[in-house]
Amino acid sequence: MSSIIGIGYENLGDAATLGGPGWSLTQPVTNLQDDDLAVYAETTGTTATIIVDLGSAKSPTLFALSAHTCADPSATLQLTGGTTSGGSEVYPGSAIAAWPFTPLDYDGSHFPLIVYAPNAGSARYWQLVVSGSASMRFGRLSVMRVFLPDYSPEYGSISDGWQDPYSTVDRAGNGADLAWSRRDLRSVALEYPAMTHAQGSAWHEIQRTHGITGEVFYLADTQDRERQQQFSFLGRMRKLGALENPFYRRNSAAVAIDERGGAP
User: Where are the alpha helices (DSSP H) in the chain?
Assistant: First the structure.
């Protein structure tokens, strides 16, 4: 059995042609391709339909929307894939809960909407539909392949921790608290202890092409959708460990990933 923790890489959505009905003329669906999470696409109704034309048949397995305002607990997600725009003959996905996890608040700047479909196949056109109860905003679309070696990574010095707090608390002259609350961002450190040479080669290429500036997606669990939504996030890599050879025909590597901020 392969790892249940994955790292999404190579956002195919950025080079794709995006379309779909029901988007604002001033905040169009193409804003999902902007690296700035504060730049958003906005629906005119209660349904967001994103049609992704990859130009040729490709096999992404992770589809995610980050920095969003879909706060309807009963909202649904549906992914389909086909050879024509809106087609579903390659992957006739069914509607699933957009919120498998029940948080204290439905904060879309923290919790992404995720469809992980490892057996979806290869298609040129992919369609992601979010059905809610109000108009919605979305900051970033991820359409990615997922790095999943044979063995789950070991957690580093932090497992599911946080970056240094962005909120601040000062004291007035009379001792009263003066608090400025800002959303704190997550961080995770991982070590892959035993990869095949092929997996090590793939990881080396991810490091080479993404570095510390390219986006990746930390997929906390490929099987449990509740944990997947609670702990997964869009981020960038840091502290890129060298590809090592701990024993015969095996590679190892370590990495830390910091969550991206900037959602409005």
Answer: 197-210, 225-231
pTM score, two decimals? 0.93
Checking 258-261 for CB contacts under 8 A at 24+ apart, the result is 258/163, 258/185, 258/186, 258/187, 259/163, 259/185, 259/186, 259/187, 259/218, 259/233, 259/234, 259/235, 260/37, 260/66, 260/185, 260/215, 260/233, 260/234, 260/235, 260/236, 261/37, 261/166, 261/183, 261/185
160 pLDDT exceeds 70?
A: no
78: tokens are 């549906």
Backbone torsion region of residue 246, taken as left when φ is above 0, otherwise alpha when ψ lies between -120 and 50, otherwise beta: alpha
C-beta of residue 43 within 8 angstroms of C-beta of residue 61: no
Give the pair of three-digit tokens for residue 263: 């959602």
DSSP code at position 239: S
The answer, yes or no, to whether residue 208 has pLDDT greater than 90, is yes
Instruction: Using alpha carbons, list the distances in angstroms from residue 7 to 69, 225, 250.
Output: 24, 16, 19
